[in-house]
Amino acid sequence: MAAAAAVAATANGSPATAAEAAEEIGGPTNPMVTPLLTDLYQFTMAYAYWRAGKHLDRAVFDLYFRKNPFGGEFTVFAGLEECIRLIANFKFKEADISFLRSVMPTCEDGFFDYLREVDCSDVEVYAIPEGSVVFPKVPLMRIEGPVAAVQLLETPFVNLVNYASLVTTNAARHRFVAGKSKVLLEFGLRRAQGPDGGISASKYCYIGGFDATSNVAAGKLFGIPLRGTHSHAFVSSYMSLDEIQDRALKSPDGLRTCEDFVSLVQTWLRKLQLAGSLSGIFGETNQSELAAFTSYALAFPNNFLALVDTYDVMRSGIPNFCAVALALNSLGYRASGIRLDSGDLAYLSIVAREFFHAVEKEFGAPDFGKMTITASNDLNEETIDALNKQRHEVDAYGIGTYLVTCYAQAALGCVFKLVEINNQPRIKLSEDVAKVSIPCKKRCFRLYGREGYPLVDMMTGENEPPPKAGERILCRHPFNESKRAYVVPQRVEELLKCYWPGSSQKPREELPSLKKIRVRCLQHLEQMRPDHMRRLNPTPYKVSVSSKLYDFIHFLWLNEAPVGELQ
Ligand SMILES: Nc1ncnc2c1ncn2[C@@H]1O[C@H](COP(=O)(O)OP(=O)(O)OP(=O)(O)O)[C@@H](O)[C@H]1O
Ligand SMILES: O=P(O)(O)OC[C@H]1O[C@H](OP(=O)(O)OP(=O)(O)O)[C@H](O)[C@@H]1O
Ligand SMILES: O=C(O)c1cccnc1
Ligand SMILES: [Mg+2]
């Protein structure tokens, strides 16, 4: 393998050393992502390759998945940046070498001398841009390089792409069902699969279309907007209004001071109790809840939001919230809204909205009816869909467990398969046709139709003439002879771009910011034909191969498959 001094071309084509590229790209977000974060068999294979003098053979691997998750017909690709961060910094430390020596005691010393020199300066990575909508069988990444080194990347690459793409897709599906106008908050950290699951969920749910996270570390690491309310513990920690010591509140312009905000709140609560339009809805409210709300408003007068379901939403939480909000209003502040965390969220959001409208009318409180209603509590695609079917008044959803654990499907099932070695195409056969790999170093294209929608993805051999806009192209199902179609694309887009040129001198694609990846994801989702995206019985998107590649796959298949014998 080439030494670290080998060049990696930069985005503008000017060569830079691998060390400079590593500096520019930075290291993996999670320090646990090191060259040792792989399966033991990658090292045993590396040793066997090395002993056989085969370790520098030039291999091509494809990373892809076989089936879209969550019963859908689309997936969002994510995790690419973390893969590039790993290979940009891929170097064994002396302590790693010692550890490997201890677990592989029968291996010759020369192997460890070789590992000491291994880096990714001779590895090339081509990938579909992160945040793209992608489909089964099409390589998300093509990794070329010395077989032993690329083999070591299998496990971490699949690890870095699998959950990232799964949870991004899950987030995109939640966005789709909630609709564009709703605010989506990711609240999953406490329920995520460990710290990395939590941080990754926050990052990738943002890419998939969430607006903000409650995860402070993710806010710091990635610049994701942070949002939050308060918990039941805060509400139930108060016993009475007497606990509130500092009762003064200045108006937003600082010119007036209300010396006893608690009394002002009590006055507003009495007004609410006496209001004709609200009579019969509530009587005496819970005073410890009122104390909690008042105290929170004193701490955050510009951003007052209350969790209203600790005792009784309509008989206590909502009237108490309104009393505090009206008191803030009279000083010139605007309350933000409420959170509902139990009960029938459709019904409660509707009656809460009616109450807010009635208050607006009764007291001439401008925009009081537009108060934000946030809902949470074991929400998922199905419950949001059910709420939509019932009618509701929820403006924002806080979603945790089902979102970040990808409760509906545990894994995407990404694989990393050898497709060529030393320019010789390789195939992996299986009884299950869906598991037969598509051989050869390939180019991948997305063909767009007249209406601007993607029509079909097509893979070709590396040296075939690429499909061109306006030309009639035969697209074939890779394994089903009768499934084929002529396509005249309006536009053709090459999918795999060079993100790590190794020693090839090709220009390196820049890694976009998280915000740009999110924009790409939302644009891609938007441009899909709606029948591919619907929740119930979506239409499969077509993934095809060129006629030439089809013929070659089947030639190789027959060549490699032993002929059975019947007696
Ligand atoms: N209108 C609705 N239609 C469909 N599902 C709903 C609706 N309102 C709430 N849900 C969902 O129903 C489930 C209700 O949860 P659960 O049975 O645990 O009751 P709860 O309201 O949490 O009660 P509590 O917190 O008082 O124990 C949650 O998953 C919630 O998202
Ligand atoms: O429901 P999720 O989608 O996971 O969203 C996050 C949940 O976490 C919080 O409470 P927690 O669940 O810790 O306590 P609770 O069940 O008593 O509300 C919050 O009130 C939500 O209910
Ligand atoms: O800020 C919130 O309301 C929140 C945060 C995490 C989990 N549940 C709720
Ligand atoms: Mg809960």
From TrEMBL:
<dbReference type="Pfam" id="PF17956">
    <property type="entry name" value="NAPRTase_C"/>
</dbReference>
<keyword id="KW-0328">Glycosyltransferase</keyword>
<dbReference type="InterPro" id="IPR040727">
    <property type="entry name" value="NAPRTase_N"/>
</dbReference>
<feature type="domain" description="Nicotinate phosphoribosyltransferase C-terminal">
    <location>
        <begin position="441"/>
        <end position="552"/>
    </location>
</feature>
<dbReference type="Pfam" id="PF04095">
    <property type="entry name" value="NAPRTase"/>
</dbReference>
<keyword id="KW-0597">Phosphoprotein</keyword>
<dbReference type="Pfam" id="PF17767">
    <property type="entry name" value="NAPRTase_N"/>
</dbReference>
<protein>
    <recommendedName>
        <fullName>Nicotinate phosphoribosyltransferase</fullName>
        <ecNumber>6.3.4.21</ecNumber>
    </recommendedName>
</protein>
<dbReference type="InterPro" id="IPR007229">
    <property type="entry name" value="Nic_PRibTrfase-Fam"/>
</dbReference>
<feature type="domain" description="Nicotinate/nicotinamide phosphoribosyltransferase">
    <location>
        <begin position="209"/>
        <end position="436"/>
    </location>
</feature>
<dbReference type="InterPro" id="IPR041525">
    <property type="entry name" value="N/Namide_PRibTrfase"/>
</dbReference>
<dbReference type="InterPro" id="IPR036068">
    <property type="entry name" value="Nicotinate_pribotase-like_C"/>
</dbReference>
<dbReference type="GO" id="GO:0004516">
    <property type="term" value="F:nicotinate phosphoribosyltransferase activity"/>
</dbReference>
<dbReference type="GO" id="GO:0016757">
    <property type="term" value="F:glycosyltransferase activity"/>
</dbReference>
<feature type="domain" description="Nicotinate phosphoribosyltransferase N-terminal">
    <location>
        <begin position="36"/>
        <end position="162"/>
    </location>
</feature>
<keyword id="KW-0662">Pyridine nucleotide biosynthesis</keyword>
<keyword id="KW-0808">Transferase</keyword>
<keyword id="KW-0479">Metal-binding</keyword>
<keyword id="KW-0464">Manganese</keyword>
<dbReference type="GO" id="GO:0034355">
    <property type="term" value="P:NAD+ biosynthetic process via the salvage pathway"/>
</dbReference>
<comment type="function">
    <text>Catalyzes the first step in the biosynthesis of NAD from nicotinic acid, the ATP-dependent synthesis of beta-nicotinate D-ribonucleotide from nicotinate and 5-phospho-D-ribose 1-phosphate. Helps prevent cellular oxidative stress via its role in NAD biosynthesis.</text>
</comment>
<keyword id="KW-0436">Ligase</keyword>
<dbReference type="InterPro" id="IPR041619">
    <property type="entry name" value="NAPRTase_C"/>
</dbReference>
<comment type="similarity">
    <text>Belongs to the NAPRTase family.</text>
</comment>
<keyword id="KW-0460">Magnesium</keyword>
<dbReference type="InterPro" id="IPR006405">
    <property type="entry name" value="Nic_PRibTrfase_pncB"/>
</dbReference>
<dbReference type="InterPro" id="IPR013785">
    <property type="entry name" value="Aldolase_TIM"/>
</dbReference>
<dbReference type="GO" id="GO:0005829">
    <property type="term" value="C:cytosol"/>
</dbReference>
<comment type="pathway">
    <text>Cofactor biosynthesis; NAD(+) biosynthesis; nicotinate D-ribonucleotide from nicotinate: step 1/1.</text>
</comment>
<dbReference type="GO" id="GO:0046872">
    <property type="term" value="F:metal ion binding"/>
</dbReference>
